[in-house]
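Quick one:
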Amino acid sequence: MTTQPAPPAAAPAKPPLRLFLTVLHLAGIGVLGGGIFATLGALLGTGIGLVFVAGIGIVLLVGLVYALYGLGWFEVARVAGLYRTPLAPLRLQPRDRPGFAGWLRALGRQAVDGRMWRAVANFAISAVLGWVVLRLAWSLVWSIIISFAPLTSADSIVGPFGGAGIPVAWAPLIGILGVAASAAGIIGLAFLHRTLSLAIVARSRETELTERVRASTAQREGAVRAADVERTRIERDLHDGVQPRLVSVGMTLGLAQQKIDTDPDAAKDLISEAHTSTKAAITELRQLARGIHASVLDDRGLDAALSALAGRSHIPVHLDVRMDGRCSREAEAAVYFSIAESLTNAAKHSRASEARVTVRLREGNVLWARVEDNGMGGAQVLPGGGLDGIANRILAAGGTFRLDSPLGGPTSLEVNVPCAS
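Output:
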């Protein structure tokens, strides 16, 4: 059987074509840039002036933030498409909590987003360069025209931007010099635009690789610490829970064996006690195994696993899970065990009477969860503790962790984990 060769990939634009496209971009931005920034300036001035007038100014300022985001998004996409540079598209800052407060916090982060402002600054620089390119383009056209001035009957020719006339005898030389200078200026500005755009909007490959290595190192260290904390927890639960119970079962059965001939009734009681202790040990082993891996998480998903977790909780749990699909196994497991450990801490240490668990699948394919209890607060991340295990597990999954637990409560814990982790 013969195989057909794969179709050739689209060839990248050649340097002359890329240069021509850059000049067109600059010319277009030079035409539109002034109007765009005049509109943004009007929004800013009007918004500040009307900020205390029935909230109209606040609405305009919010619109300004979104307008700046749209301009930044366009600039990133333009630079990526023009120079065939793989750039992540500019995205709105995600909400880190539900409701109006979450939206307001996200809006504040968007207003100070450095990447957005770099893109806007690059567009402003491009608008200035574009304005100069338009002037040089007109100078180029004028220089070509006056090169043929001796064919006319005029005695002198007005310069491209007004001013004193140029004698016709000198027109061809000035025209040739003008063509060379204008073309050189346009080409130089095109190369300058490329250099500035890649420096401002696009991050260098070395910087990107360095950040990836740093993130990978942090995730690996988090995974190692999470595994160490989990191993310590398992050892502690076995040593403090199951092991003494099994030792007690063995001793009780030994006493029953000694009394089975002389005092059968007492032996039966001891055997019954050992049986009860054995069932309790089995229950503890099941809980320990469930803490290592929740099988229902793989079989029925995060919603069902959290419902089972809330049903076993020692304090009432209000569960609010809204997910349109499934995330990766690693992401769901990280969020599940974070919630499980948080509920355990709320029941054991915070003296909480109830807890609330909220889970959302947010924009950008990010799994977000929040656990809040009405306990006494004061929770801290201590090395080797449960919260340290949560932080390391979330970090290992490539997510973020935030704890807010003032003295007197309430305590809230929020995690964000990318679904593709």
